[in-house]
Amino acid sequence: MIQELRDLMFLDIETVAQTADYNALDERLKTQWARKAGFFKRDTDHTDETIFHDRAGIYAEFGKIVCIAVGKFYDTENGDLGLKTKAYAGDDERELLMEFKTMVEKLDPFALKFCAHNGKEFDYPYLCRRMLVNGIALPPVLNLMGKKTWEVPHLDTMEMWKFGDFKHYTSLDLLATIFNVPSSKGDMDGSQVNKVYHVDKDLAKIRDYCLRDVVVLAELYLKMKTITLNQPLVHKSTE
């Protein structure tokens, strides 16, 4: 295996509003959400409640993580490149965050690097914030305090695609399309996660969707690094 691939861990998270019912929020959080929602209600008929269901999940202060999927390259018995994936999913956010942290801390903290799409703007800070809210000390790979820019072990495929163009947002699905990587989008997309969790109660569906995103992310990374495989990437999910 190429050395640069050996210590990479691909990462994707799925997040939802903290509660299914806006009215279940305590009064202090409702007040804070009203201030946040005020930025979105201009020239619309939306209420604090409807905006909460649509947008709360993307803010770590009002949302929670229900799934973390990871992927790591490995050498198959045939000498081909494979990808092992695993998902940490559940209703108890603290429990799944602790499971994720325990796994991460078993790896070499000086070599491990994360890779996510739009990770620097979303996945990494969201993980850190929710860990701290749950009273969990950050693992070394997420604890950036005192680190210089070049010491931060976080890669971001969206940043790789920007080439310094900071106003340019490109979705994972669009990049997968232009690089001819099979899409992770089947019968759902990211905008539906909150409904699938709170209304449909289908965490397994969210878990599968999150795992598919990690596979797409890993294949996209190989394309963007112009790493050509002799055989299609072997994918193995572990429990």
From TrEMBL:
Gene3D superfamilies: Ribonuclease H-like superfamily/Ribonuclease H. Residues 62-227 form the Predicted 3'-5' exonuclease PolB-like domain. InterPro entries: 3'-5'_exonuclease_PolB-like, RNaseH-like_sf, RNaseH_sf. It comes from the Bacteria. Transmembrane segments: none annotated. GO terms for molecular function: nucleic acid binding. Pfam families: DNA_pol_B_exo2. This is Predicted 3'-5' exonuclease PolB-like domain-containing protein.
